[in-house]
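Lab channel / #folding
Pinned by the channel admin:
"Please post every new chain as: sequence first, then the structure tokens as a reply. Keep commentary short and put observations after the output so the thread stays searchable."

First post following the new format, from NK:
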Amino acid sequence: MAAPGGARTAQRLLLLLLGLIHVASSIFVVRNDTEAACIMANFSAVFFMNYSTKSGFVNTTFELPQNAVLLNSSSCGKENSSNPVLVIGFGEGHSLTLNFTRTTKNYQVQLLSFTYNLSDGTFFPNASASPKELSVESKTNIQADIDKKYRCVSSSQITMNNVTVTLSDVTIQAYISNNNFSKEETRCNQDIPSPAPVPTIHPTTAPKPTPTSPPTPEIPSVSKYNVSGINGTCLLANMGLQLNITYEKKDNTSVRRIFNINPNKTAVNGSCTPQVAILELNTENSTLVFRFAMNATTSKFFLQGIHLNTSLPDAKQPSFEAANDSLKELQATVGNSYKCNAEENVKVTDSFSVNIFRVRVQAFKVEGDKFGSVEECLLDENNMLIPIAVGGALAGLVLIVLIAYLIGRKRSHAGYQTI
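Reply from TO:
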């Protein structure tokens, strides 16, 4: 049985005030007939998918909204007959379901399923597919020891056919015995640092070829990107973009390639919510998504996530995907704009980064479709210090020479006496 809506809202507001959860995450509690909690979940979710329209397939990205609710189909389950299930609903008929199972030692989210309604024009404008209600599902690796909570700060992706769900800042516990999250936890593999490799001695062999690097293309053209929602513009951006990808070719050699984003061959989409602004760039064979978020505590906006889905015809795995929703780049005060003339390299994964040129961006509180006051990047400030320091040194040198000349001239005059 779901917790009363008012109680859950009050609990969430208290946690937000204490700064214990991220503004974009949601907390859900499933209770049994005696009001004891059996499932607690607190996480952020971003959905990336494509759907059919009259003009062809389009991509869309949206987050689990703040007004998502716990549905009555959630249950603590019954021993030997049914398992616990958490069902979260939002929009016009969309639901995210987590089905739990257990053994004597651990429990897991055995199945994650997502049901969505293409008739909801807010999330799926101009959708033309039939039937309108569709469902996808996948097994997961979300697993924890009994009487411990599952904790995963890092982002993890779960792909279900045409839908990819990115979960981040996750705290989940099922089969709860003390009516609250356990103090002990099982961390996900992504949060655990890899151990340092143990040195080993290998027979002398021919060295493997290092990744080849084709010639770097010219600096990309700077283009203006605009994302608007029902309340007006939520994102303005001027920038040139390069994709830097390392991959293995069919002949087992490693190669690093750099691709420019051509604004003239790029379709721009996006979406706005009070805390998230999404910029989606679709080229002939790639989809590049920028996710900007807001920190309500510091009144700062920042680039939180980058997703790439592209095809590499000469790669051993032609379909290339990379994502990171734990970034803290391009930060500025809400109402101002971030500007950097220097090239910035944003590392997304070990095999993918984005080179950003001559960027100026502003997310949220965009007045009159114009950039606000500028906040310069650190790279530009450092570059300005060099000519200032050189100019100051030259001015000091000139001053020293002038003083020396005046002193020398005065002494030379002192050697002559008036008759």
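NK: The CA atoms of residues 93 and 107 lie 29 Å apart.
TO: also worth noting, The two ends are 116 Å apart (CA to CA).
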